[in-house]
Structures are given as structure tokens and as C-alpha cells.
Amino acid sequence: MNKKKNFLTGFAFFLASLLLFIAVFNILIPKSDQELTKKDFLAQKTKSFRYVAIGDSLTEGIGDTTNQGGFVPILSQSLTDAYHYQVTHDNYGVSGNTSNQILTRMKDKQDIQNSLAKADMMTLTVGGNDVMAVIRKHLTKLSVATFKKPAKSYQERLRQIIELARSENEDLPIYILGIYNPFYLNFPEMTEMQEIINDWNDATESVTKEYHHVYFVPINDQLYKGIDGQEGIVSTSGDQTTVINDALFSGDHFHPNNIGYQIMSDVTMEKINETKNEWNKD
């Protein structure tokens, strides 16, 4: 009987001690709110991000055989992968547009203005058709000097594009892609063409340096020499020899192909990674 009494007393003491320990433990270490922690975690991992792409055929994605929009959706996915953004993108690329036509569309199209007002980032492809316009106008007497005056006018329109894009969104970061040289394939006699392209890109870059959070993205070196950096790749079929560039669309040897657009996205993403902390502190 005493053994049973001692057992019950000991068990009661053990049970009281256990309850006391649990009570003290709960006081010293409060129970975490698992639902709140999950919400906080998700909030840190996802953020809506609106990306607006404006420009010419490179933004529209001519040469992209998937018909998904060239480098724009690729860059959107890269932003998602790198920064866990929930990216939505608006593509306002129109093939053949010069800087003047892009500027006019931005002034006239309310949907573009609305998108820019809410945008977190913008890319711009511009300049290639301005160069082509000079080539067509002065085809028989082209020289480096021929492009000097048109480049000055282009710079002024570029400033207007930047300022219009920021009229309702003054801190909008803008990445302006340079132009590249596919002309040696189509106009091999124009031996000064690379100097002309370099000068034009310098004109674009000089404008970007006038503004905070406007960046120049050079793509010429990555595209005009082909995927493996071999300028003027020679393709031989029977008796016919053709100079090609395997980063360009075989349908016109002018616009990027799918790999070319991937290259454009990669180069743009590199620039974003280098500069993002300047305009986004998240």
C-alpha cells in the first residue's frame, strides 16, 4: 500500500513539474505565429514589377521564330529568376520606327503613357532605322561625315524620348540598347561602317550620361561578330560562298535570331545587375 502511495505521490510530483516546465517554457519562448511567418516570407520573395519596352523591330522581336517578342520576354524571365519579381511587361515595339516615330507614338498613344506612369523599368531600342535612313538618302556618297549632322538631331530626339518617358514617373530607370553592325553583310563595300556605328553608339551613350539612372547597353560586340566572335562567317554550299552571321536571322541577315535575342537579353541583364542598386534598394 505504501509502495502504491509513494508511486502516486511521485507521479503527481513529476506531472506537476512537467506542467510547470511547460508553463515557464511558453512564457520565456513565445509560440511563433506560423501563418504570419509564412506571409512575411512570401512578401519578401515576391514583388510585382512592371517592365515597359519601347522601340523598333528589335523590341517587337523581328527574327524571333517563336513570335514571343524577341528579348523582352527573355529579359522578363531573367528579372523573375534573379530578383523573384512577379514581372508583367508591355511591349511597344514597332518594326521600322525611327527615333522620331517612336517619339510621336509616345506623345500620341495614351496606353504607352499609362504604362510608363506605372513602370518600374523601361528599355529602349532606337537608332538603327535612323542610320538606315541616312544610308538610303546618301547611298552613293556615304562617308563618316555624312552621319554627323543626323546624329546631332537624333540626340535631341533621344533626350525628348527620355524626358517624355519620365514626365509622370521622374525616377524611372531606363536602359537604352545600342545598335550593332549587320551592314557588312549587306553592304560589304562600306568599309567605314563600323566606325559609323561606333560614333552613333557614342552619341547615344553621351546622352545617357546626362541623366541619372539612364544607362547605355552596348550590344554591338556581342552581335556583329556572330555567336563565337567570328566576324563574317563564311558558309559554302556547292560553288556558292556566302558571308553570314550566326547570331542574325537567316531570313534577312539583319535582325537577331533567337540566339541573338538571348544575347541581347543577357547583356542587358548584366547592365541591370551592375546598376540596379542605384535605383532600387529592395
UniProtKB/TrEMBL annotation:
It comes from the Bacteria. Gene3D superfamilies: SGNH hydrolase. Pfam families: Lipase_GDSL_2. GO terms for molecular function: phosphatidylcholine lysophospholipase activity. The keyword Oxidoreductase does not apply. Keywords: Membrane, Transmembrane, Transmembrane helix. InterPro entries: Ester_Hydrolysis_Enzymes (IPR051532), SGNH_hydro (IPR013830), SGNH_hydro_sf (IPR036514). The chain crosses the membrane at residues 7-29. Residues 53-263 form the SGNH hydrolase-type esterase domain. The keyword Iron does not apply. This is GDSL family lipase. It comes from Streptococcus ruminicola.
